[in-house]
Amino acid sequence: MFSDFLKKIEEQYHNNLPFVVYRKPEDNEVKAVFQHNDHTHKVVDYAETGFVLSPFESSDAAILIYPDETYSSTYRVNVEEKTLKLKNTPYSDKDEEFHIQLIKKGIQAIKKGDFKKVVLSRVLQTTYKAPPVTIFQRLLNNYSAAFCYLWYHPKIGLWLGATPETLIKIENDTLTTNSLAGTQLFTGDLNPHWGQKEKEEQQLVTDYIVEAISGAVSAIQISDVRCIKAGNLMHLKTKVTSKIVSGKLNEIISKIHPTPAVCGMPKRPSKAFILKNENYHREYYTGFLGELNMKKERNRTVGKNTEHKAYRFLKKTTELYVNLRCMQLKDNAAHIYVGGGITKDSIPEKEWEETVNKSRTMLDIIT
């Protein structure tokens, strides 16, 4: 039963031991990975096995929760649960002014030719009362199309999120990644009009990913651009598939992370601008997380009729997600992270409103 599953998680948290509990998009299975000690495992070459959480700054180490025990349980979404729509948001005029000035500075740098795009973000703090496991259940109930997770390590902290963006997925020798860019508030139309700014931003991300992985993969295929809904937001998405060369995962990750969807383009100057001008440390926001070389059981029926047996086989899979729509719980406060892509056509006031809309994903959950 799911209640027994939750008790195991609460006990692990009470004992101050590392764990992660998560559900993949459009799935009804919730999984948990438990580590038996509080050792901090750092990823060296991505040949390791476990659940990884990597920061935005790639020079900082990615952390691995080692799978000493794994659990899973079926979860039925509580369709009756509704989130509240906030009448007031925890922003000040000072917050708004700083972020608008930051965006103007980014636009000036783009027009000077320093880079083509930069993703600028901010963090806001608010109070919360519900236990982390309860907040996680609210994420499950309200964001079925997202990767929902609760991650904890006593030496690092506690993070929760519902991210719509896949970084990479590897199954057998097939690598899948997505470019996700452009944002607007969902108003009931699943195929809304998109402006030139959003279309250009999406194409920049797609071009970057294809160029970044081309030396480590073969047979690249690019899908058409389509609209997806993530909570109360709409995005543009392109799927990129290819065949991966064995042993190239570390190289691929180093090339594509951070992507233009969370950093900018070109990567080096846009990242330098972020580190110099954002007034806080992103930590694991806009990093990535997920299963790394985890074993997956599959059933395969051999034969043409039902008398033939179904065989079980194990294979390793890697499925990593960009850490967007997330929050960190620390110091008795929820720290919520939001940002947006800035191009030469950006309007600072509209970009500010975009971050306000994005923040509601987490604010509605904890209110």
From TrEMBL:
Transmembrane feature ranges: none
Annotated signal peptide: none
Domain Chorismate-utilising enzyme C-terminal per the UniProt entry, residue ranges: 99-297, 316-358
Domain of life: Bacteria
PANTHER family: ISOCHORISMATE SYNTHASE ENTC
Name of the protein this chain belongs to: Chorismate-binding protein
Organism: Costertonia aggregata
